[in-house]
Amino acid sequence: MPPGRRRPSSQHAPELRAAAHHLARRRFLTVTAAAAALAFGTHLPATGAASAAELDAARIADDPFTLGVASGDPWPGSVLLWTRLAPEPYEADGGLAQQRVVVEWEVADDERFGAIVRRGTAIAHPEVHHTLHVEVDGLDAGRVYYYRFRTGTWISPTGRTRTAPATVGPASALTFAAVSCQAYHEGYFTAHRHLAGDDVDVVFHLGDYLYEYAIDAAGGARKYTDRVLPDLFNRETVTLEDYRLRYALYHRDPDLQAVHAMHPFVVTWDDHETGNNYAADSDENGTTPAAFLLRRAAAYRAHWENQPLRASQLPNGPDAQLYRRLHWGTLAQFDVLDTRQYRSDQAYGDRPHIPGPESDDPARTITGAAQERWLIDGWRTSDAVWNVMPQQVCFSQRKLDLSPVAKVSMDAWDGYRASRERVLAGAKAAGIDNLMVLTGDVHVGYAFDIKDDFDNPSSSALGTEIVTPSIASGGDGIVRPTNWATYLTANPHLKFYNGQRGYVRVRLTPQAARADFKTVSAVTTLGAPITTAASFVTEAGDQGLKPA
To answer: Which GO terms describe its molecular function (predicted)?
Structure first.
């Protein structure tokens, strides 16, 4: 990262937000027209371009459900349903121009829709790229449901979702998966295909859902011979149109469609949904904050449009509150974090470095003060057996070499040790007995004990950290990367390290948590089988990972 990169303040200055709105309006009024500029507003369409002519759905000649269906953020009596209408997914307007489309939706007890429990209509507006975010309420808690959309003569694929158990009631078990880092150009999403057939209740996507880098006509490492990708993908994503089209490419992947159709997702972002290793209003290229916030606004808007997120996550220009809390009865509380939007700039030019005065400045933060307070306050009132923190970058100490004072990553929590100390102190003060951190980002599988003192192997374990392998990022991978022995020696609290692609499957009960690391042998060729590389258990009230 260039030495001249600027350290942002803890809050975006009002003039920067105003500049972002102003520049966005000028850019999109001249390049992609007024409706795209309206996409940076706070609310869903109500006036203006929202009054565009209604398209007669009977005239839609080609399947508009080319990008599949998805559901997300299960609550006890509610779930969010998503789809996007795009008969021409690689066209900027999806083939529907600036017209609104009426869509019917149905939720049923059975896959054949013989017992429909909720139905309604929604409008796919051009301002939000003909995406739908339907918040279905009035459902029973702790139930599996099936859903679909219909417009004109077209019916979407059927999706399967579920609601969470009642918040005040006990839950006997929960099985979830954690996934992250799915670089399209580095391989197939084979792990998603296997996960679609796995018996899990919910999937946590921990970031890097897409990558901003150019993708050539052959799909990079996929090396397509049966298709040619449009040249519009062979550039880095910068504009709202760029990000929207990149999501269309990802959503066209059949394995990603399959896993979304089978399981509800809880998503958070990391850096690549916007730009590599950005921090708050700074990117790695030294772009001015005003210009970068404009790019961030485009990325955030496209992310919301293309994910099963509720209206409360709708961005306001370059700002969006993605951190949120979900419950699974009294068995688990999930505090989903955002460690990108509010963080201080990475110390020491974002290069691996020994801890020092710059990285250890107590004023530095990876979460921002408001999110940190929200997290710790939520622990104080939690009555859950398991408190799970889905987030992005390595939380536990991870020494990168065997030197007496080793280098660590400045992009992970090691570069924000004061933040980590405050969070762990908050967990101890709140009496959190069973803490589990879920992490993505590094493309490999790790299992850590979270130590009270990471430099003292005999200190007590405050919790565990489960780091999921990537879905495709990094290519095929190997079981033991070249630094395997170094990392295990330098970090005695690291209990497992695997460099293959895959996902983690976690089962929680009131008595214990079990984590199974599921890996595939290759992602550059289709059809690799999945195996369980390792399994670990940590017992409630007695933290510390043990081989299962």
So the answer is: alkaline phosphatase activity
Among 434, 443, 424, residue whose Cα is nearest residue 506: 434
Pairing of strands 174-179, 494-508: antiparallel
Rounded CA gap, 33 and 12, in Å?
27
Tokens coding 215 = 């993708």
Cα–Cα distance measured from residue 147 to residue 153, given in angstroms and rounded to the nearest whole number: 17
Q: How far apart are CA 214 and CA 232, in angstroms?
A: 9
**Beta-carbon-side half-sphere exposure of residue 430 (alpha carbons within 13 Å):** 24
DSSP 8-state assignment for residue 470: P
| HSE-CB for 226 with a 13 A CA cutoff | 1
C-alpha closest to that of 514 among 485, 539, 533: 539
Burial (0-12, 13-18, 19+ Cβ within 10 Å), 342:
buried
Contact 408, 346 (CB under 8 A): no
- How far, in Å, CA of 159 to CA of 120, rounded? 16
82-101 per-residue burial string, b: 16 or more CB within 10 A, e: under 16:
bbbbbbebbebbbbbebbbb
Of the candidates 346, 337, 189, 185, the residue with the CA atom closest to the CA atom of residue 257: 189
Quick check: pTM over 0.85?
Answer: yes
The tens digit of pLDDT for each residue in 430-459 reads: 999 999 999 999 999 999 999 999 999 999
